[in-house]
């Protein structure tokens, strides 16, 4: 009994519990929507969303599909880390998509126009993301412009800038950039043997373990280092940080620059695997950056939690794409995964509700227990301190 | 109908992780009385009042209003029952104006539009009636702590509450303002309102309270009539030992000049005039110099300029022979410790655990950070434990206690511990004893004197007349941003000091002022 209560009050356990509740609720509502649209295939469809790659017929196909999901989890995780990191410093990096675009832009341009190898492309993508991030940081620190506003505006500015620049390296017959495999295979992130595990899915690369490494790195920086101490102090109380001699303005810029670099690398982790090319006629901000927000919250604002959350979100997104198109309109997959992702954002709300509930329950229980204690105390004086 | 008590709190118990903040406490507030609540820092006074105001739910016990049991689940319930509270740490919206804060939650609207004029009139009337001077259109973030406090009091009066809880309202007021507040409280009592009044100042209890209840470490000690109880008895009830209220010290043995300020001018954030004008002073090794003055006469800005929180308009500061006029806060802090005026705004990262706050000024030093930039967890923990023991900082869970959950006085003690323990030649202590209990004040005063005797220079900024008269070796009076008087605490009287503080007398820089007037 004692153990159970302390478990439910344990913050990590709470984080996991509330995330699971959100997921279940999201799936439930998704199911209801499916039922409303067409009750016949709803059960099958929600199963497809949840199981994703497991619905494939052969083990080969399953491995390959899992590989695809993982390949897209890596960039999503990087975006989530970007947002998570900034959030810990009190900044809401909704500009992650813009930083992601910048990473894609320079990463791909370096690969296609300058024939750089993948390491150089990766580094340049990081620098590009960092630059865009630091624009928001600079505006926030010195001009008190909210990073949310500048972030959203930059998302669009960088999108069209990217389209413009990448048009110079696009395939003459399509709106997409040229294929790395034919133009410069040295820019492809090596698979280092990982592809063998996923039925020779070439998009399974070092990007996946690297992104996990980044998650651990971010956790270490935030919790174990002087740098993290400073950044979090700045996030909690800018004035106190200033009083303590920290360069609070500089910290804001550095934070958003690091966040930008993470998102930039995230883009490189997608486009340098050859999984996909950039469409130069794209007119919406890449969804990766926004899903990163959901992954951050679903992951309990914890860098390690975001690893699992990113995988889950990517998995239902991919699973959604597998829904039987003869029963449901093709937009349904995105609708359902959006609903689920949306609900993931409610994690904090559920956590709050959970704590409220615990408190109420405890109050009641203690008064019950103490009622007895008082009785015995009346008889035998002092019922002991429990 | 006519139960004798306006409010009864019976057998209240409230626990927090690691601590029983209120352990079976019973408190009875008579109608139309001023009932003081006395207890050491962390004794559980604020917690008990928060239970009454609906911010916390007690695990045990009942609350009765006019003899009838009531449930107070949140501050709205409290407000409906006519219970109002001025919190120890203000609950004001920083970017709202004074007026907006006062009417927040009880705005009157017409067709969805705010009706500010009526509210303004009522506020002005109240502020006039009680002498609570505020500028209704100033933003909270721009006004002094004193004015914020007055806003809080007005907020409560504006809601016509009949049971008024004051959680250390006088901690931040000037002596004159305290006098006025006492008068207000007497008026309120005459109007039949019942008041719960938390304060650490026994004089104030003597001056206005009818009865006083004493808490110690979460337990109820007793309730006595103020008229039949001496201050010494009260402090003994509270601390459990005799408290020496007279500051004992040897004459100062001064040495080299540590701090030299020449013609320092600092801009004001609120108005276009400079807040600090051509201030010059010196503090020597082994002496305590006190800047006295009424709140809002430039002391805050003076300290900002000295510590590097705000740039100087002009002037020169020399610390230990080095010109630091334009030096960064970090480089100044090598030789200067600073106990800030506003402990929540500057002094603490409230969401950090106590141990992280204990190293706020030194986290980067090799003692706490390895060469590779990693925090040394073990050393930090041990250091925090050491400071907590040495300076009697009490908290629920020791080093891992989140600073926000500590009692106000213990937060202050943590800051003092951190700043005094750090290497320094000059200690700038701004109202260091604000919110401390008499026992702790005794401790801090001893500490300041020990600092002095260890050859450090101490610059004390205080609004507390008793402190000003007893602790320093020299008093400098600040009035409208200028040093107008230098006094020897042994030779001056409170009355004379008051004249300087009010700007009626001047013995420093008089010629300069005259010259300026002529020009
Ligand atoms: N929200 C909270 N969570 C955990 N512990 C708390 C919380 N609030 C108060 N405490 C603890 O309860 C104890 C009593 O605190 P309280 O604020 O009531 O003291 P106080 O008598 O008002 O002291 P002070 O004179 O310093 O203001 C303290 O030890 C404090 O650390
Ligand atoms: Mg208190």
Keywords:
heterodimer; A: 386 residues; ABC transporter involved in vitamin B12 uptake, BtuC; disordered C terminus; B: 519 residues; alpha/beta; Rossmann fold; 6-stranded mixed β-sheet; binds adenosine-5'-triphosphate
Please provide a written account of the structure.
The complex is a heterodimer of chains A (386) and B (519). Chain A has helices at residues 2-9, 11-37, 42-51, 59-88, 96-113, 118-143, 147-166, 180-183, 207-224, 226-236, 238-243, 248-271, 287-298, 303-320, 332-344, 347-380. Chain A is mainly alpha-helical and 386 residues long. Chain A is globular and about 60 Å long. Chain A has a domain at 60-315: ABC transporter involved in vitamin B12 uptake, BtuC. The longest helix of chain A has 34 residues, at 347-380. Chain B has helices spanning 45-52, 75-80, 98-103, 116-130, 145-158, 175-190, 202-208, 231-239, 299-307, 329-332, 343-347, 354-358, 377-390, 408-421, 438-453, 465-470, 494-501, 510-518, and strands at residues 5-16, 19-30, 34-39, 60-65, 68-70, 83-86, 109-110, 113-114, 163-167, 194-198, 211-216, 219-225, 257-267, 274-284, 288-292, 314-319, 322-323, 336-339, 426-430, 457-462, 474-479, 482-487. Chain B has three domains: 7-239, Rossmann fold; 248-335 and 425-519, P-loop containing nucleotide triphosphate hydrolases (Rossmann fold, 3-Layer(aba) Sandwich); 344-423, no CATH class. In chain B, a hairpin with a 6-residue loop joins strand 13 (257-267) and strand 14. Chain B contains 18 helices and 22 strands. In chain B, the strands form five sheets. In chain B, strands 6-9-10-3-11-12 form a six-stranded mixed sheet, sandwiched between helices. Chain B has a six-stranded mixed sheet with strand order 18-19-20-15-21-22, sandwiched between helices. In chain B, strands 2-1-4-5 form a four-stranded antiparallel sheet, covered by helices on one side. At the A-B interface, helix 10, helix 11 and helix 16 of A face helix 10 and helix 11 of B.
């Amino acid at each position: 009994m004692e153990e159970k209560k302390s478990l439910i009050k344990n913050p990590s356990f709470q984080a996991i519990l509330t995330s699971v509740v959100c997921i279940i609720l999201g799936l439930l509502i998704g199911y209801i929507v499916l039922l409303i649209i067409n009750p016949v295939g709803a059960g099958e469809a929600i199963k497809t969303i949840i199981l994703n790659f497991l619905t494939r017929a052969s083990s080969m196909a399953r491995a390959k599909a899992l590989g695809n999901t993982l390949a897209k989890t890596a960039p999503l995780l990087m975006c989530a880390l970007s947002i998570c990191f900034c959030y810990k410093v009190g900044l809401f990096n909704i500009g992650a998509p813009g930083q992601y675009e910048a990473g894609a832009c320079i990463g791909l341009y370096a690969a296609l126009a300058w024939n750089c190898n993948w390491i150089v492309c990766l580094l340049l993508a990081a620098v590009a993301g960092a630059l865009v991030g630091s624009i928001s940081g600079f505006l926030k620190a010195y001009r008190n412009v909210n990073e949310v506003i500048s972030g959203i505006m930059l998302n669009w500015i960088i999108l069209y800038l990217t389209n413009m620049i990448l048009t110079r390296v696009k395939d003459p017959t399509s709106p997409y950039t040229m294929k790395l495999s034919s133009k410069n295979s040295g820019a492809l992130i090596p698979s280092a043997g990982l592809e063998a595990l996923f039925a020779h899915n070439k998009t399974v690369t070092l990007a996946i373990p690297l992104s996990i490494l980044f998650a651990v790195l971010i956790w270490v920086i935030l919790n174990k280092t002087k740098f993290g101490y400073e950044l979090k102090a700045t996030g909690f109380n800018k004035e106190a940080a200033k009083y303590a001699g920290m360069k609070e303005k500089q910290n804001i810029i550095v934070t958003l620059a690091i966040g930008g670099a993470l998102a930039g690398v995230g883009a490189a982790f997608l486009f340098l695997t050859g999984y996909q090319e950039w469409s130069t006629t794209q007119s919406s901000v890449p969804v990766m950056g926004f899903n990163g927000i959901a992954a951050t919250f679903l992951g309990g604002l914890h860098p390690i939690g975001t690893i699992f959350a990113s995988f889950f979100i990517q998995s239902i997104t991919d699973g959604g794409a597998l829904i039987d198109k003869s029963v449901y309109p093709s937009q349904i997959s995105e609708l359902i995964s959006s609903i689920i992702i949306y609900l993931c954002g409610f994690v904090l709300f559920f956590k709050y509700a959970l704590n409220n509930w615990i408190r109420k329950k405890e109050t009641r229980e203690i008064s019950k227990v103490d009622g007895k204690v008082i009785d015995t105390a009346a008889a035998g004086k002092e019922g002991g301190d429990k | 109908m006519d139960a004798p008590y306006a409010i009864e709190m019976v057998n209240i118990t409230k626990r927090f992780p690691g601590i029983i903040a209120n352990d079976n406490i019973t408190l009875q507030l008579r109608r139309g009385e001023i009932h003081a609540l006395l207890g050491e820092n962390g004794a559980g006074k604020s917690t008990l009042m928060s239970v009454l105001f609906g911010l916390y739910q007690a695990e045990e016990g009942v609350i009765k209003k006019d003899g009838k049991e009531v449930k107070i689940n949140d501050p709205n319930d409290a407000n409906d029952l006519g219970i109002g509270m001025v919190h120890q740490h203000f609950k004001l919206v920083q970017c709202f104006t004074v007026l907006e804060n006062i009417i927040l939650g009880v705005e009157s609207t017409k067709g969805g539009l705010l009706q500010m004029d009526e509210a303004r009139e009522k506020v002005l009337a109240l502020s006039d009636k009680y002498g609570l001077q505020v500028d209704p259109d100033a933003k909270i973030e721009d006004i002094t702590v004193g004015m914020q406090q007055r806003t809080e009091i007005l907020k409560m009066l504006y809601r016509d509450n009949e049971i008024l809880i004051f959680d250390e309202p006088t901690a931040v007021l000037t002596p004159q303002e305290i006098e006025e507040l006492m008068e207000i409280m007497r008026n309120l009592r005459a109007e039949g309102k019942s008041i719960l009044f938390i304060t650490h100042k026994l004089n104030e209890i003597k001056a206005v309270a009818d009865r006083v209840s004493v808490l110690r470490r979460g337990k109820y000690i007793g309730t006595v009539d103020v008229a039949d109880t001496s201050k010494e008895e009260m402090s003994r009830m509270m601390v459990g030992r005799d408290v020496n209220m007279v500051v004992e010290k040897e004459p100062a043995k001064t040495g080299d000049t540590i701090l030299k300020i020449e013609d320092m001018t600092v801009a004001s954030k609120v108005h276009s005039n400079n807040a600090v004008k051509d201030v010059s002073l010196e503090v020597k090794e082994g002496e305590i110099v006190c800047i006295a003055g009424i709140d809002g006469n430039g002391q805050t800005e003076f300290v900002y300029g000295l510590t590097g929180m705000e740039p100087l308009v002009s002037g020169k500061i020399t610390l230990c022979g080095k010109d630091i006029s334009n030096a960064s806060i970090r480089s100044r802090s090598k030789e200067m410790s600073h106990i800030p005026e506003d402990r929540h705004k500057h002094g603490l990262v409230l969401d950090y655990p106590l141990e992280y706050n204990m190293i706020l000024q030194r986290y980067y030093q090799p003692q706490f950070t390895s060469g590779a930039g990693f925090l040394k967890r073990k050393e930090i923990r041990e250091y925090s434990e050491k400071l907590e023991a040495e300076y009697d900082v009490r908290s629920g869970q020791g080093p891992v206690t989140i600073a926000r959950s500590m009692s106000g006085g213990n937060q202050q003690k943590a800051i003092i511990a951190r700043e005094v323990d750090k290497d320094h030649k000059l200690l700038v202590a701004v109202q260091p004893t604000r919110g401390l209990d008499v026992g702790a004040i005794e401790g801090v005063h001893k500490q300041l004197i020990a600092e002095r005797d260890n050859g450090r220079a101490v610059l004390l900024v205080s609004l507390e007349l008793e402190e000003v008269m007893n602790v320093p070796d020299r008093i400098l009076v600040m009035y409208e941003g200028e040093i107008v008087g230098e006094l020897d605490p042994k030779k001056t009287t409170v009355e004379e000091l008051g004249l300087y503080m009010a700007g009626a007398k001047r013995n420093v820089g008089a010629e300069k002022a005259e010259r300026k007037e002529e020009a």
